[in-house]
Structures are given as structure tokens and as C-alpha cells.
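Risk register update: the risk of archive-format incompatibility is retired. Evidence:
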Amino acid sequence: MRAAGAGEGALVVEVTEEALAPGERPLERTLAGLRELGVRVYLDDFGSGYSSLERLAWLPLDGVKLPRGFLRPPAAAQHRVAAVLRGLVRMMEELGLPLVAEGIERPEQAAFVRELGVRLGQGFLFGASPEAPGTAP
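Archived output:
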């Protein structure tokens, strides 16, 4: 980062839940070391793999990304998905972690997550390739 002239926070690393095998506490030191170097760390696809609410309490994270499955719920489950997202939004606000919705391809998907309080998103709706965390839906 220094050699490229990138400022602190310019690099974002996404750690997928699949990389978080149960009981892998040494990962905490690695992520903390990355953050000390100015790298932002996001937990990708939260809720689709080895997620644990406990991990949100101790992993050194800068944000959490929702999997695109939250944007395509079956019609019969949409109210339940909305309830889960509202709860996640409140929890992430309390933890001080941004919540990013992935896979936004249509305006109605952006509107759906925005109405539930998700303020950040990425996906083809915003450009030809997925944007870095921080693009507002």
C-alpha cells in the first residue's frame, strides 16, 4: 500500500464465512494485524456459512456484508427476511459496523434494503462490476 501511494483504509479485505472454520481464534490476530496496517476488514456473506453472533463480538472487523440471497427471498418468506434485516441493521448500528447489501441488480432491490435501514450496497445496478463497499443503494 505504501509503495503504491494508497492511503490508510484504501484497501479492503473481505473474509468469507467459509474461511472461518469453527474455533479458528488465530484468525483474530491476523485480522488485527491487517487493521494495524490500515487495511479495512469486512466479513463477507454474513449468515450463509459459519456465522456466529459471538464472532461479531471479538473479530476485529470494519463492516459486514450480506449475501445476495437476502435480496431474492421467496415471496412467502419476504416478511421474515425483512424482520431479520431490521434486526441486523439495529445490531450492526450498536456494534458500529457498516452493513453492506451485496448483489443489488434492480432498483426495487435497492429500495427494499434501503427501506429496512441498510444504507450501503454494491452490485451491477451501480456499475458494470461490483463496487467497493460504500456505494449507497
